């Protein structure tokens, strides 16, 4: 099989690229490992920023559809101390520039905007190799192969395309999330629901934080952030939900009950999500016929930018290819030269955020960060 533009991965980056190409009349095929759009729950809410994610959606011609997905009021945020006292609060007045949407709905919006058959589900790529003259061959888990004159790795943290460009691999950042969900929170978990309020809650302390979002309906999504080694987490048996939950809650012993309830009242099993990152400044020399977007190119610890940047990369690459018909190398050069510094800037901001969160003066550092941005 030969497809001219071959995108590996139907995440937000790959789908935005496919959509922007489609808007410009350029066909592309997306190969996705998962069996269907519903194969895996897509995670929680994403705030989509007016300086990157929303620009990508505009380039994709999907602003009206996007507005229909926005969860009103979810930009409200509050910072609590460990006794539950509100230290900082910000209402959602609709001018925040970071509306929240459910990730699954955003992905569905992009999928629905593509021609039928553009995404080949259940096609896991195992490797890719150069054939010369900018052509590549991709091998699939079922043994099939695809050749292409433009290969784009949009396949996330553990990209199978990245080895064509660089030897870098993600490393553990020292921090992990443990996630919990509380359903029907206003009636079943009222104290926790009240603590979270209408949008998001942060309760930070040195090396740890309880972070929670009010998602659609009255579902609360808790992200417990802990700076601990991978060995520390490995000693917890996450297949034993009750014991694992109790072990994580123990890290917050003495905290206000409405905060620890965001852990102990979880209606789902705790899910461990270790954070990995590529080196800041990860880049490569131009290799004809292949590039990367999103986490495949610049995975960093969650800083609220990853999905936004992935979409922005996809849109920028799509626009560059449309602007240079028949000249893939000029388009890829233009895209990469802008993408490399953009990724560094976001990762540097991330370092700043982490210093605020885990520095000596928690949570004042975090409050200062929000008030500085007013
Ligand atoms: C817990 C958590 C919370 C986050 N919160 C936010 C947030 O609030 N805001 C934000 O902007 N970012 C957030 N991020 C970061 C964000 O999720 C990522 O940066 C973003 O999803 C990257 O998009 P992507 O398209 O590059 O990759 P991905 O979303 O990882 O998509 C890659 C796709 O490729 C597929 N794939 C992988 N390997 C193969 C293969 N070998 N063959 C075929 N297909 C393959 C995968 O199945 C997947 O569909 C968060 C991340 C985590 C872990």
- The chain-level mean pLDDT equals 92
Which structural category do the helix and sheet elements fall into? alpha/beta
Shape: globular
Order of helices and strands: EHEEHHEEEHEEEEEEHHEEEHHHEEHHHH
- Residue share in helix: 25-40%
* Main sheet properties: 7 strands, mixed
Number of helices: 13
Function: An FAD-requiring monooxygenase active on some tetracycline antibiotic derivatives, which leads to their inactivation. Hydroxylates carbon 11a of tetracycline and some analogs.
GO molecular function: FAD binding; monooxygenase activity
Cofactor: FAD
Domain FAD-binding: 3-326
What's this, in brief?
By secondary structure, this protein is α/β, with parallel strands linked by helices. It is 35% helix and 24% strand. Helix 1 runs parallel beside helix 4 and helix 2 runs parallel beside helix 11 (306-323).
Describe this structure in words.
- With 374 residues, this protein is α/β, with parallel strands linked by helices.
- The chain folds into 2 domains: 5-72 and 100-168 and 279-358, FAD/NAD(P)-binding domain, CATH 3.50.50; 171-277, 2-Layer Sandwich (D-Amino Acid Oxidase, Chain A, domain 2), CATH 3.30.9.
- It contains 13 helices and 17 strands.
- The strands form 4 sheets. A 7-stranded mixed sheet has the order 5-4-13-14-15-12-16, with helices on one face. A 5-stranded parallel sheet has the order 7-2-1-11-17. Strands 8-9-10 form a 3-stranded antiparallel sheet, with no helix packed on it.
- Helix 1 packs parallel to helix 4 (103-112), helix 2 (53-59) packs parallel to helix 11 and helix 12 crosses helix 13.
- The longest helix has 31 residues, at 328-358.
- It is globular.
- Bound molecules: flavin-adenine dinucleotide (FAD).
- Flavin-adenine dinucleotide (FAD) binds next to helix 1, helix 10 and helix 11.
């Amino acid at each position: 099989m030969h497809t001219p533009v071959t995108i590996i991965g139907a995440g937000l980056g790959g789908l935005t690229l496919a959509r922007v190409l489609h808007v410009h009349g350029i066909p592309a095929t997306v190969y996705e490992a998962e069996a269907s759009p519903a194969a895996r729950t897509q995670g929680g809410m994403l705030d989509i920023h007016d300086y990157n994610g929303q620009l990508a959606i505009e380039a994709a011609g999907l602003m009206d559809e996007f507005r229909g997905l926005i969860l009103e009021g979810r930009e409200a945020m509050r910072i609590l101390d460990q006794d539950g006292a509100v230290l900082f609060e910000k209402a959602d007045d609709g001018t925040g520039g970071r509306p929240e949407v459910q990730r699954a709905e955003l992905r569905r919006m992009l999928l629905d905007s593509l021609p039928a058959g553009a995404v080949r589900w259940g096609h896991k790529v195992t490797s890719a190799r150069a054939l010369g003259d900018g052509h590549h061959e991709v091998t699939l888990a079922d043994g099939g192969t695809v050749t292409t004159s433009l290969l784009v790795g949009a396949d996330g943290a553990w990209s199978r395309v990245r080895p064509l460009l660089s030897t870098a691999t993600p490393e553990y950042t020292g921090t992990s999330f443990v996630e919990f969900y509380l359903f029907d929170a206003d009636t079943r978990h009222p104290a926790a629901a009240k603590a979270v309020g209408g949008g998001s809650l942060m309760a930070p302390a040195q090396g740890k934080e309880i972070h929670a979002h009010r998602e659609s309906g009255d579902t609360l999504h808790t992200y417990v952030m802990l700076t601990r080694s991978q060995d520390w987490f490995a000693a917890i048996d996450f297949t034993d939900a009750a014991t694992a939950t109790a072990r994580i809650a123990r890290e917050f012993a003495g905290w206000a009950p409405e905060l620890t309830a965001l852990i102990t009242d979880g209606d789902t099993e705790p899910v461990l999500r270790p954070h990995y990152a590529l080196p800041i400044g990860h880049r490569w020399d131009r290799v004809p016929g292949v590039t990367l977007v999103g986490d495949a190119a610049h995975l960093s610890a969650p800083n609220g930018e990853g999905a936004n940047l992935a979409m922005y990369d996809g849109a920028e690459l799509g626009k560059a290819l449309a602007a240079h018909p028949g000249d893939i190398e000029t388009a890829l050069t233009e895209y990469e030269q802008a993408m490399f510094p953009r990724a560094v800037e976001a990762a540097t901001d991330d370092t700043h955020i982490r210093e605020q969160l885990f520095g000596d003066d928690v949570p004042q550092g975090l409050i200062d960060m929000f008030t500085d941005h007013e």
